[in-house]
């Protein structure tokens, strides 16, 4: 007996793999400083927890509508209209899923067909480096992933010219993530409007079925001088933009598994019905007593989200300053999300104190974990120039950042040039 080839070929999530290895070492008694998973170290705000408990005790424990109850979908639609400025969003344009990753999977399955033998697949444009799950889930849906390379010199942002050159008649989707996982940088409003203009022009000429998926899960974690901007608010492409979001990062609700998708206009309604059909055959609704907690988060917990954002801003400065002081490490300044993505390729060709050869980002991370007990994510699976980088999640205390950077500094300085 065998497992399906399309699943067998998928790579394990490198971020989850690092987290698992760090946890295993800790169980063995090792003092590991972990920068692996993107999980805020803050507790979920008390008002959100109290609301969920109250709803549970009141008996809200039964099945709910597949895409969420109308009241909660209305709260999300109101937030998206007021905060994100996305036009023509009603409760029927909103779908609530079991986390952002589930929402992404469902969106991709609804956009792409598995190609017939001899048929060219639809293309998914993906600026890289990018989150490790985009490409595998797009390929699982039948898409051909077309990478658009970016560099640390551009703060890992693609240009309108790059986007224009990548679009073909087979282009079906452009995935954007701003603020970015893994890069920790973000597009400005001007830059996103320029990309939107390319999409608008291409949709009226080369690629009529082109859709934008804007992953804005980190929208509330923007702490520099670049305010978050939703590309779906640009009227010319609003109806061909699907906005993915959730509560995990902004409100420290990772374990609650709340993701949501919003669309706009007539086509958005059609697409949301397709998502509802698929989700109805999969997970149906999320946990019933969480819906009131979603409304509480969106309506009452802005101050909590802002407090956490300010803490991430302080941590961003701390880790950036520390990384920039370590020999041979080059890092873009984090402006959003809670990741630093330094280039460590200057140390390729060296060896560690215990004799490990450093020939790749994976080698660097394995030696760093084994010898310095610091867990970071190697950049190979993020695509593009990621092979020269590693990712640090600074969703942790400043004390942990200092401790980890001390160890990283000592580790780097101990590397020897191989003869």
Characterise the protein shown here:
The protein is globular, with a radius of gyration of 22 Å. With 419 residues, it is of the alpha/beta class. It starts with a helix and ends with a strand. A hairpin with a 5-residue loop joins strand 10 (350-351) and strand 11. The chain has 13 helices and 15 strands. Helix 4 runs parallel beside helix 10 and helix 11 packs parallel to helix 13 (398-414). The model has no long low-confidence stretch (mean pLDDT 95). The strands form 4 sheets. Strands 2-8-7-6-5-3-4 form a 7-stranded mixed beta sheet, sandwiched between helices. Strands 9-14-13 form a 3-stranded antiparallel beta sheet. Strands 11-10-15 form a 3-stranded antiparallel beta sheet. It folds into 2 domains: 5-43 and 303-414, Aspartate Aminotransferase, domain 1 (Alpha-Beta Complex), CATH 3.90.1150; 46-300, Aspartate Aminotransferase, domain 2.
Mean pLDDT, to the nearest integer, reads 95
The SSE string, one letter per element, is HHEHHEHEHEHEHEEEHHHEEEHEEEHE
Annotation, overall tally of beta strands: 15
Uncertain regions spanning at least 5 consecutive residues: none
Quote the distance from N terminus to C terminus: 49 Å
CATH architecture descriptor of the largest domain: 3-Layer(aba) Sandwich
Helix content: 25-40%
């Amino acid at each position: 007996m065998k497992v399906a080839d399309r699943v067998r070929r998928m790579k394990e999530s490198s971020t989850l793999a690092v987290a698992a290895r760090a946890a295993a070492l800790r169980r063995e008694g090792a003092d590991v400083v972990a920068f692996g998973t993107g999980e805020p170290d803050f507790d979920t705000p008390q008002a959100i927890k109290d609301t969920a408990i109250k709803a549970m005790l009141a008996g809200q424990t039964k099945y709910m509508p597949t895409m969420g109850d109308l009241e909660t979908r209305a709260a999300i639609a109101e937030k998206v209209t007021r905060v994100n400025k996305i036009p023509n969003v009603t409760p029927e344009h909103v779908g609530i899923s079991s986390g952002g990753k589930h929402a992404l999977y469902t969106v991709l399955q609804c956009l792409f067909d598995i190609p017939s033998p001899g048929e060219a697949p639809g293309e998914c444009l993906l600026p890289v480096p990018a989150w490790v799950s985009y490409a595998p889930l797009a390929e699982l849906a039948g898409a051909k992933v077309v990478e658009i390379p970016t560099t640390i010199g551009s703060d890992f942002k693609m240009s309108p010219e790059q986007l224009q050159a990548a679009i073909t008649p087979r282009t079906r989707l452009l995935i954007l993530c701003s603020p970015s996982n893994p890069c920790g940088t973000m597009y400005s409003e001007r830059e996103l409007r320029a990309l939107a203009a390319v999409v608008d022009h291409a949709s009226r000429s080369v690629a009529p079925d082109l859709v934008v998926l804007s992953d804005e899960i980190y929208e509330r974690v923007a702490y520099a001088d670049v305010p978050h901007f939703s590309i779906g608010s640009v009227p010319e492409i609003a109806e061909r933009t699907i906005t993915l979001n959730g509560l995990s990062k902004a409100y420290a609700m990772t374990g609650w598994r709340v993701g949501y998708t919003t669309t706009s206009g007539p086509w958005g309604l059609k697409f949301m019905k397709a998502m509802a059909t698929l989700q109805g055959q999969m997970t149906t609704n999320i946990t019933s007593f969480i819906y009131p907690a979603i409304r509480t988060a969106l309506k009452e917990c802005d101050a909590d989200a802002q407090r956490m954002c300010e803490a991430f801003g302080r941590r961003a400065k701390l880790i950036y300053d520390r990384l920039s002081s370590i020999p041979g490490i080059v890092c873009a300044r984090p402006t959003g999300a809670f990741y630093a993505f330094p280039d460590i390729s200057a140390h390729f060709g060296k060896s560690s104190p215990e004799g490990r050869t450093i020939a790749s980002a994976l080698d660097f991370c394995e030696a760093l974990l084994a010898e310095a007990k610091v867990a970071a994510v190697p950049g190979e699976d993020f695509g593009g120039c990621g092979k020269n980088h590693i990712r640090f999640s600074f969703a942790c205390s400043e004390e942990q950042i200092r401790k980890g950077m001390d160890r990283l500094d000592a580790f780097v300085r101990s590397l020897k040039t191989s003869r």
